[in-house]
Structures are given as C-alpha cells and as structure tokens.
Amino acid sequence: MTELKRILLVDDSSRDVELTLAALEQNRLANEVVVARDGEEALDYLYRRGIFKLRTAGHPAVVLLDLKLPKVDGLEVLKQIKGDDELRAIPVVMLTSSREEKDLVQSYDLGVNAYVVKPVDFHEFVDSLKELGLFWAVINQPPPGSVKRPDDRR
After folding, report:
1. Contact between 75 and 94 (Cβ < 8 Å)
2. How many structural domains is the chain composed of?
C-alpha cells in the first residue's frame, strides 16, 4: 500500500496558495496538501479541534508556514509547535516574503527547520517549491505518525 505524506500549507494569500498548489501539482508530488488560511486554523488542524476535530490522527510530514498571518502570526504558530512535546518533531519551513533579519533570527531561535523567502518571479517560485516539495515530502524521512495511507480520512 502506498503511503502519502501530508503537507500543511499555512498562508492567507489566495494567490500564493494557488501558486503553491499549482507548483506542487506541476511537479507531480502526490501528497495531500491541507490548507489553513490563518495561524488559528493551522493550530486547530494540528490539535484536531474546531473544523478538524474529526480528522484522522497523525501529523503532516512538513508545515509550510507563512510569517505574516491573521489571528495568530507565523512566529506564534512556530513557537507553539516547537514548544509542544507531541508536535516539536514536525519539520517547519517558514515560507515568507519577509527578508527582515529579525524575522529570520526569531524563526531560527524558535526552532524553524528552514527559512525560505518566496521569489517574486513565478518560475523561480515554482522551482523553489519543487525543491522544497521534493526534499520535505519525498526525500526526507518524516517523524513517526506523519504518514497518511490512501484509505485514511483527514
């Protein structure tokens, strides 16, 4: 039975979500991508509460996390993930447009696994996501409990 790795994409920009999903699809990464539009929704997904309370147990293989989010910002989401014994092993990639050094430093201080600045050019964006997707969703071995079998429900 084939095992698929789940990606949690957290981004409030509809354009960036569409580009990310298109790039992942274009590169034929067969992973399920769950989209959260703000930090609160991302935490609801991870803690299986709210609209996600009935999803199947297990964690994403990677979280692609925007920095500037409504309700709960990306740094706070990162802080909660890395501060929780059950969630801390989940790889988190900050996928953001911020080039500010303070954001980079804070992200690494909180335990981010990678910090990627979103390229402005569409083709560069697609290439960056191809590399990210291939590494985190195909090559990297995720922590236990993050693999989804095709017959599992969310």
Report:
1. no
2. 1
